[in-house]
Amino acid sequence: MSTEGFNPFRMAQAQFDKIADQLDLDESTRELLRNPMREYQFSIPVRMDDGMVKVFRGFRVQHNDSRGPCKGGIRFHPQETIDTVRALATWMTWKCAVVDIPLGGGKGGVICDPHNLSMREQEQICRGWVRQLAKNVGPLSDVPAPDVMTSAQHMLWMLDEFEQIHGAKYPGFITGKPVGMGGSLGRTEATGYGVIFTVREALKQMNLKPENHTMSVQGFGNVAQYAIKLYDQLGGKTICVSCWDQNDSTSYSFKKADGIDIDALLKITDRFGGIDKDKARDIGYEVLPGDAWIEQDVGVLMPAALENQVTAETIQKVQGGVKIIAEGANGPTTPEADAVISERGIFNIPDFLANAGGVTCSYFEQVQCNMNYFWEKEEVLDRLDTKMTSAFIAVSDLAKKQNLYMRDAAYIIAVGRVAQACRDRGWV
Ligand code: NAD
Questions:
Q1: Residue 358, pLDDT score
Q2: Closest by CA position to 228, among listed 274, 266, 257, 272
Q3: What is the pLDDT of residues 396-405, one digit of tens each?
Q4: What residues does CATH 3.40.50.10860 cover in the chain?
Q5: Does the pLDDT value for residue 5 go beyond 90?
Q6: Known catalytic membership, residue 107
Q7: DSSP 31-73
Q8: Which of 107, 229, 256, 387 is catalytic?
Q9: Per-residue pLDDT tens over the stretch 309-363
Q10: Residue nearest to atom 28 of ligand 1 (CA)
Q11: pLDDT > 90 in the chain, percent
Q12: CATH 3.30.230.10 describes domain 188-349
């Protein structure tokens, strides 16, 4: 499953164009919403541990802030591109709107591979990123967060740099901070749990029970791990996960027909979500090719690794028993695959609804920082459940009422809200 030649921004625009037609948006609103409002591209020079200076390329894209400050993660990835960041920023706008939180969409990135960087070098990249953008981001304009290969530690370095530049404390500048340093309890669990809150509701609406429907997952990182944990707690079973193998530069799937043991698997997983193949075999897992996760005869498929994985080609491998595709990852499904999913009557829970738990909890983190009062984990997760469940119900109600594909229903709600905010402000 390659992402070569795939342009996520073209896909985000194609998805938007379809909805703009359905909503009959005027030309100026289309023009405003199909492109980001602001983009920053810059160089970050870093003195490496060997004494040489290396220059890294950084990005920040602010897609739309009509509903509130931009919000979105920062990815460290060797294949990061401006178009990936544009697409992700666009999807953030729709994500915040569909769960109805008062934020807009942004995304950032740095072309780098943390596997090959010391912590000191990563710290310098974080601080350099903030120095380049210190006047263009902030608690009232654009609030970053962690994403692929960035963590709470990276966020704290960025916060520290921002506060040193501005000479005051701004805990609301960035989210995903360590607990005890302005972070919210429950943030680590939020995205994965959020996906399962929507899966639970979808099963309920279909009169199905988690205990009768196994799950297969692409990815074994933050999103996948907590989704699997909560599905377990609801009585469901996950029988297959896949991950990237850094040493072989390929992916593998790990299967256990009677259900994976998440805690045992975590003991042999590195911090990037890579599972040790030999140790997995030792504890009874079948090690299969990377694509095997999508070929499993399960009730729920969850792509939770990266974009462009459920395609015109791979959707043909999806078995007849699959009831739900819950998109933990951003942009995992192409429009061609969407057409097949819709035709086959598989229930799709689109990415910007399914994985909105992360940004919802980040919003809770901002709220707690502003109050300087922090909630117990249970309170955070209860509020998260309420927000995710009501967003899911609003989308599925519209889908049922107008006989729409779930992604289209989610888009109609999200784009409609953002377009309205732009009109209310007099922008269009
Ligand atoms: P992560 O870095 O913690 O984990 C990624 C996982 O995917 C790892 O297990 C990795 O081995 C695996 N992977 C990478 N390439 C693969 C491939 N080709 N085949 C199979 N597995 C592969 O990342 P994460 O935070 O879990 O994020 C996963 C996805 O969810 C991304 O698309 C991200 O943008 C999206 N997302 C994350 C959050 C969040 O809060 N973490 C929120 C919203 C969306």
A1: 95
A2: 266
A3: 999 999 999 9
A4: 38-174
A5: no
A6: yes
A7: HHHSS-SEEEEEEEEEE-TTS-EEEEEEEEEEEE-SSSSEEEE
A8: 107
A9: 999 999 999 999 999 999 999 889 998 999 999 999 999 999 999 999 999 999 9
A10: 305
A11: 94
A12: no
Between the CA of residue 305 and those of 78, 145, 165, 308, 357, what are the distances in Å? Answer: 16, 18, 35, 10, 16
Q: Which of 141, 135, 137, 112 is nearest to 124 (CA)?
A: 112
Give tens-digit pLDDT for 371-397.
999 999 999 999 999 999 999 999 999
CB 186 within 8 A of CB 385: no
Ligand 1 center to 329 CA (angstroms): 6
Q: How far is CA 261 from CA 222, 257, 296, in A?
A: 16, 11, 18
CATH of 38-174, one of 3.50.50.60, 2.40.50.840, 3.40.50.10860, 3.90.1010.10: 3.40.50.10860
The C-alpha atoms of residue 415 and residue 150 are separated, in whole angstroms, by 29
What are the pLDDT digits (tens) for 231-271? 999 999 999 999 999 899 999 999 999 999 999 999 999 98
**2 pLDDT higher than 90:** no
Query: Rounded mean pLDDT of the chain?
Result: 96
**Strand, coil or helix: 228:** helix
Residue 298: pLDDT over 80: yes
Q: Tell which atom from ligand 1 comes closest to the C-alpha of 243.
A: 21
pLDDT at 246: 86
**Residue whose token pair is 């990061």:** 80
Q: How far is the CA of 305 from the centre of ligand 1 (A)?
A: 4
CA of 246 to the centre of ligand 1 (A): 14
Ligand 1 binding pocket includes 352 (Cβ within 6 Å): no
| Beta strand ranges found along 169-289 (DSSP E) | 215-218, 238-245, 250-255, 286-289
Q: Strand order in 300-303's β-sheet?
A: 286-289, 250-255, 238-245, 215-218, 300-303, 324-326, 347-349
Binding site membership of 305 for ligand 1 (Cβ less than 6 Å): yes
Positions of CATH 3.40.50.720 in the chain = 188-349
Provide φ and ψ at 293, rounded to 5°. Answer: -60, -35
pLDDT at 3: 55
CA of 170 to the centre of ligand 1 (A): 29
Q: Ligand 1 pocket test: which of 88, 306, 388 has the largest number of ligand atoms within 8 Å of its C-beta?
A: 306
Residue type, 349: I
